[in-house]
């Protein structure tokens, strides 16, 4: 059945006649699909109920974003390090007047919506109108249902069977909410054993924590069995004392009910960093995030203790504590909106808005150890994650570095090891099927970090191997094309080392990740009043973020800019000696051994683990 025939056959006569007249210009902009995982179709929506229908307008110049970034991030560019101001970014990517007028004109003249019902948000990014379900269905040629959350029973509106817009309108609209995207990570991410009780966020610490019976025995333990701050300093040549003071900033993001305890920090610092006892991170509360609330301490303990311990008391750590008061919103959106007011969204169910709109400071480095969506080419996910990734690209254009963990599922998604079966269903338990990447790590504007471990019986003088206690996440994106800056390194791997998998198993032309790696197991931390061994790529990300924060410290002291978007530089010849090349290990999943580590870049450990002094010197050599 053609798109137009499907539309015409189920609509009232007046709109049917309108669509027949527009037959040549109707285009499907959101394809039908199954009900998203984690949700159940409850009932047809009440046609008289009101919903705030939101049109997210296409931004200007997004096709030039990578070129703009290379202009300031490619070491060969004469403008290297000349980051844009937030005002310049805002003005360059604001939706055009043509876009606003086209969508507004269609709504008022083509669809008969009274102009008083339509509101353009202050930044010019979103057109919103409050309409009944019946009006929304006629406007979008969609059928709205009420869906029930399988975990907590909450409900929301949506139309998983897709919607349509006229062709001349669809090119000016990124997506319409609420429609096929169900918001929040809950629908697609899974719990790890020590996740917060809310179950809304997947943590990357897939390796189980182990209690340490006698902490004093660590004095004689090797770094292959117990990784301390001293082990990390030796592994990565990390001899660092801050010299740029409060000018340098670094942050870590924690989400939902994942919170730290100051008593755990002091327990850890008293043993491994006495000059940090009594210190806590500086709170940046997003949407009312409260680190003193009850919740899971596993992830924040890992992140904060490692970063503060490595950076020392001379470098302040900021904590983005991101609450999720509106369960239908992806917490990524809340963090991005807090940093950039142009990204503020309105909740598609309750009509309540995000309250922190561009009112939070952006640190020079931001570390994220969470996953929120599988990297699937899926109409319920792709438009939104692509918009999120573009927003991250705009932020790094201003000189910010965003670092994220690559995941603990190998070539599968999350700790539940989900793969795409031949029937096209995302299924847990490592079934045979296509590899599934992880977001936000696969966004090309993020620096993704995989996990390594000291080999059994090995020492810090030797290059690590990819961890075997859990499969480090890595692979190729289904949403983002491979960027030019990693072409040579990735093609070398594809030509010489990739296993002979069928073309359907992974997307060879996609953005490849991780970019780098750092130790992920077994790290010694304090958690819930005791010492434990913990890890995951969620440890690797804050470790590498600490290294980049230290690089920024050196550049700022030298009167230079922060490093900002580092990926083009890391893959360039100027940084060829700045990494310890990891060549042993694999990241199994989906009924395969995954990808093997190999000389040069690989989808297990990226370019390798950092040598801080060489990395710092390479960045100091740039303008």
UniProtKB/TrEMBL annotation:
InterPro entries: Peptidase_S8/S53_dom_sf, S53_propep, Sedolisin_dom, Tripeptidyl-peptidase_I
Keywords from the named record: Calcium, Hydrolase, Metal-binding, Protease, Serine protease, Signal, Zymogen
Cofactor(s) listed: Ca(2+)
Hydrolase found in the keyword field: yes
Main location: secreted
Signal sequence coordinates: 1-30
Residues annotated as binding Ca(2+): 581-582, 600, 602
Recorded coiled-coil stretches: none
Cofactor binding remark: Binds 1 Ca(2+) ion per subunit.
GO-annotated biological processes: proteolysis
Compartmental location: Secreted, Extracellular space
UniProt-annotated catalytic positions: 299 (charge relay system), 303 (charge relay system), 538 (charge relay system)
Peptidase S53 domain span: 226-622
Gene Ontology MF terms: metal ion binding; serine-type endopeptidase activity; tripeptidyl-peptidase activity
GO cellular component: extracellular region
Keyword Transmembrane helix: no
Domain of life: Eukaryota
SMART domains named in the record: Pro-kuma_activ
This protein's name: Subtilisin-like protein
């Amino acid at each position: 059945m053609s798109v137009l025939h499907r539309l015409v056959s189920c609509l009232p006569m007046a709109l049917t006649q309108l669509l027949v007249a527009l037959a040549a210009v109707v285009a499907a902009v959101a394809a039908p699909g199954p009900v998203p995982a984690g949700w159940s179709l409850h009932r047809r929506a009440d046609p008289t109920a009101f919903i705030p229908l939101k049109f997210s307008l296409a931004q200007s110049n997004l096709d030039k974003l990578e070129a703009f970034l290379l202009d300031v991030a490619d070491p060969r560019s004469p403008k290297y390090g000349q980051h844009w101001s937030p005002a310049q970014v805002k003005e360059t990517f604001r939706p055009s007047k043509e876009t606003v007028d086209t969508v507004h004109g269609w709504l008022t003249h083509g669809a008969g919506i009274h102009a008083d019902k339509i509101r353009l948000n202050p930044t010019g990014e979103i057109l919103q109108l409050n309409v009944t379900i019946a009006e929304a269905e006629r406007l979008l040629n969609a059928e709205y249902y009420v869906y029930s959350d399988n975990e907590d029973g909450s409900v929301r509106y949506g139309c998983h069977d897709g919607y349509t817009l006229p062709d001349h309108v669809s090119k000016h609209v990124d997506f319409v909410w609420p429609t096929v995207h169900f918001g929040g990570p809950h629908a697609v991410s899974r719990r790890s054993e020590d996740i917060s009780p809310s179950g809304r966020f997947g943590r990357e610490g897939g390796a189980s924590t182990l209690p340490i019976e006698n902490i004093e025995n660590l004095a004689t333990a090797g770094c292959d069995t117990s990784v301390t701050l001293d082990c990390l300093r030796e592994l990565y040549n990390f001899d660092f004392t801050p010299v740029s003071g409060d000018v340098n900033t670094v942050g870590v993001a924690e989400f939902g009910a994942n919170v730290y305890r100051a008593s755990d920090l002091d327990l850890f610092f008293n043993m491994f960093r006495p000059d940090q006892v009594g210190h806590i991170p500086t709170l940046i509360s997003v949407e009312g995030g409260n680190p003193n609330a009850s919740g899971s301490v596993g992830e924040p303990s890992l992140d904060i203790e490692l970063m503060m311990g490595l950076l020392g008391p001379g470098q302040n750590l900021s904590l983005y504590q991101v609450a999720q008061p509106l369960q239908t919103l992806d917490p990524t959106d809340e963090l991005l909106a807090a940093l950039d007011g142009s990204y503020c969204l309105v909740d598609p169910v309750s009509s309540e808005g995000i309250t922190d709109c561009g009112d939070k400071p952006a640190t020079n480095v931001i570390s994220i150890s969470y996953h929120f969506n599988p990297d699937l080419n899926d109409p319920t996910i792709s438009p939104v994650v692509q918009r999120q990734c573009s927003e991250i690209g705009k932020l790094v254009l201003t000189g910010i570095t965003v670092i994220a963990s690559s995941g603990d599922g190998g070539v599968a998604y999350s700790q539940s090891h989900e793969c795409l079966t031949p029937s096209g269903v995302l299924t847990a338990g490592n079934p045979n099927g296509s590899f599934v990447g992880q977001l936000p790590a696969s966004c090309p504007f993020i620096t993704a970090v995989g996990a390594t471990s000291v080999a059994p019986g090995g020492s810090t003088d030797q290059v690590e191997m990819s961890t075997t206690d859990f499969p480090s996440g890595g692979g190729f994106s289904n949403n983002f094309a491979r960027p030019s800056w990693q072409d040579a390194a990735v093609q070398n791997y594809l030509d010489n080392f990739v296993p002979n998998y069928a073309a359907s198993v992974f997307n060879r032309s996609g953005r490849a990740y991780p970019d780098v790696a750092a130790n992920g197991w077994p790290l010694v931390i304090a958690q819930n009043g005791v010492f434990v061994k913990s890890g995951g790529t969620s440890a690797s990300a804050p470790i590498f973020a600490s290294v980049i924060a230290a690089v920024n410290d050196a550049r700022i002291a030298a009167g230079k800019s922060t490093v900002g978007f580092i990926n083009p530089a890391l893959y360039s010849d100027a940084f060829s000696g700045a990494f310890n090349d990891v060549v042993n290990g694999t990241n199994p999943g989906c009924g395969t051994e995954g990808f093997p580590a190999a000389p040069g870049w690989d989808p297990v450990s990226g370019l390798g683990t950092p040598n801080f002094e060489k990395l710092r010197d390479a960045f100091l050599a740039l303008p």
